Fold:
Amino acid sequence: MISNVMLIDDNKIDLFICKKIIEKYDPQIKTRNFTNGISALNYLKLCRLSSKSKTLLPPDLILLDINMPQMNGFQFIEELKKQELNLAQLPKIYMLSSSLYPEDILNADNNPYCSGYLNKPLTVEGFSSICNTASNSKRFRGSYLKLI
Structure:
């Protein structure tokens, strides 16, 4: 079951929309918003170092924008891999983007750390599909969801 979601997007309006969609789907799900990948990675490091903390909860799911300044979504995944977590410890990552570039979709599809690709804006139905897919798969790439 998904209880903590990390939203990473440089667009504050998109963050707001995602948060509201998630609240509409299930008001009990907690969200943490980050406007860049660097601050999100720092939070994940803190979660790992403070594993017994009740306030620093690691996400079960990451919704990640592809096109961001400083660090794009694929660079974020590369940096996350360097944190020396085993695959089972990593949250599910879904690319959420307005990009229609076939290369971005192909890169997301070929990346073993990416569980799926969704076009913006997030919808309740899209988030429901993510939750159902994430809950039913044991391994990170257990089932791939592509909602375009």
In short: The first strand starts at residue 4 and ends at 8. The chain has five helices and six strands.
